[in-house]
Amino acid sequence: MAERGDSLRISTTTNFSRRLDKFSSSRFYQMTYIGVPLIVGGLIVKREDDHFRGLRNEYLPRFNRHLDDYMQYAPAAVMLGMKVAGVQSRSSWGRMLVSDAFSALLMGGVVNTLKQTTNVERPDGSNKHSFPSGHTATAFMTATMFTKEYGHKSPWVGVGAYSVATATGLMRMANNKHWLSDVLTGAGIGILSTEVGYYFADLIFREKGINRFANENMFDRMDKPSFVSLYLGLNIPLSGYDIDEEMEFRTSSGSSAGVEGAYFFNPYVGVGGRFTVSNTLIIVNEERAENNTFDAISLCGGSYFSYPLSSRWLIGSKLLGGYVHYPQLELTDRSVSSRSGFCMGSGVSLTFKAKEYYGIRFFLDYNLLPSHSRNSGEYMNMLTLGSSFMITF
């Protein structure tokens, strides 16, 4: 009976994993699994745009570069260069140009329609055509085109293309031209437009002008889930503390950005770390919202844990400890000097392996932070909810 029960549990787990992988491999899912969540995520974080802009204003207040004007086209330029050089791609010239034309028309139509109808003012106040980010939509559209045509050559083609696209979106925010919601929605539109454009071309050309390559994306449930990721999250404070006997300090929601990575010794256990900068808005004595923000810079390391639900879906956790530094805090009627201390953290995550070498991770982290003021011995409790783009290895 015990053996029969064990066999039944194994069979149930295997069937669940197969169904999960089958759904994840469907054409509809492959077309929408990145673009749609990015668009939905952009709409969700729209009400938190001020927090992420505050992060930019705190750490990059004078940033002004025009490299993003050119970076948006970089993946397309490389793709065309390789095509002209005779490097074999997925599509013939005709099929590729039709696919890309459909993609560009869809992307341009959606972006320009939304810009003209939503009337969202840019962070710098220059005009009311902020939503969504056209630069970011173009960058992710060209990155997806390049990956579709030459991703079979190396998984690093996609990693490089999407890294350039991500950098373009980040620079749009650093240049104070776009809100986070603009960038996320633009990225989603760029990817989804390309997927639909290539789908339309596939319907027209069918098997004409296409090269079929062996599937390079080989997923194994027992792969080591080592990763490096771009970390972006919304801070949700769970507590405040007394600065002194007369003043209680509380933070509202804020934002965090940074990098995180871990090396796994096997499919289940690894070591890694996380570097983040964050800011949150300040409320004192339940009455006054301060103009300045509560800033923190942290570096933590520790153990990472993972469990594969299937070959492409994983759940994870971690236990971290490390160092946090608070810059000097200027309140209306006093200053709180800079301070450093020991922090601890944990969290849970859900990871999807989009391709063999990159994926998406959704996380909910908990951090226990020391007090900013030397006159208070109270620790702060903070949740961070967010997602990250991962390079896996």
Automatic annotation (TrEMBL):
Listed InterPro entries: OMP/PagP_B-barrel (IPR011250), PAP2/HPO (IPR000326), PAP2/HPO_sf (IPR036938)
Pfam families, per database record: PAP2
Name of the protein this chain belongs to: PAP2 superfamily protein
Ranges where the Phosphatidic acid phosphatase type 2/haloperoxidase domain occurs: 97-198
UniProt xrefs under CDD domains: PAP2_like_5
